[in-house]
Amino acid sequence: MPPPVPSRVRLLSSVPFALLLVAGLATGHVDRSYDNGIPAAARSSTAWSVVPSAGGGTRPAEGGRPYFYAEGVPGAVLEDTVSVVNPGAKALTVELRGADADNTRDGGLSLRKRSTDTGAWVTFAERTVRIPPRTRADVPFTVTVPGDATPGDHPGAVVASSGGRDAAVRLQLRVSGPTLAALTVERVRAEGEHISYDLVNRGNTVLTPRLAVWADGVFGEVLERGPRTLPVELLPGRRITLTEPWPDAPAFDSVDIRLTVTAAGGARDTATASARFVPWGVLAGVAAVLAAVGGGAFWRLRRAGGLRGRSGWGLGGRPRRTDSENELTGAVT
């Protein structure tokens, strides 16, 4: 059963689109100033945009919010408002929906096609919204946290679609309760001029990892990179595969690699791997040259031996005895 619509929306339920138009439809006045939290990019472009409404949510900000943030206990109904800005000269119709956030394999952020978490808990006052030209529409919505929702972060998004284009605003939902920051680094391997590894979020909070890398060769340290923040937001329960460039990897060495990953909340893990760097191309070239030299020497020796056999001369320049000479010598008394 959908959650109750906020009271301010029920008061406007007789308005044609069941939403609050900042332009002021009752007076027929259209707001052309584009103030009240509309970003400069939207003011200078004819492309429509979707943004959090100013002053809404559980953490309002006077200068506007880059994303939605909501926090509540299991069973709570949280309220917020999304603004759709239409700076163009034609009316705009958009479809609103909630979506679950996800990590791509290389650590980017994406949206799942089918929502089973935060995206499925979002209910809009109106899913289909028609916005007059040069107008901003504020659409209330609720996030109903299930009674059995697990504590921690549940990242999602509010998505608006129109004319084959999607625009989304992040929805960061945290369900109250115990939180755990934990991650592991796995499958470390040296591959050519980079080090590949997996990061897995084993906790229930969004993590921004920090990575440190060391490598020791036969004659000492060959790589040292102190901790630095990775450009990744690792969502709970996700696994990603990243690479660390190593353009100056040794050409010929046996190396022990160590990766240490940390994150806020005390998350920490270390993994090691061994790698042998062998210049197979150079060795193959050397082997080919040696084989050619050896083959040439063998051919010359064979040829020289054949010539000596045909000339009748033995080793040391002495005449080679034939069987007929032996027989004649044996017959002399």
Automatic annotation (TrEMBL):
Q: Which residues form the signal peptide?
A: 1-28
| Keywords, ordered alphabetically | Membrane, Signal, Transmembrane, Transmembrane helix
Residues passing through the membrane, by range: 277-301
Segments of this protein annotated with the region Disordered: 312-333
Question: Which superkingdom is the protein from?
Answer: Bacteria
> Does this entry carry the keyword Signal?
yes
This protein is called what? Answer: DUF916 domain-containing protein
Taxonomic source organism: Streptomyces jeddahensis
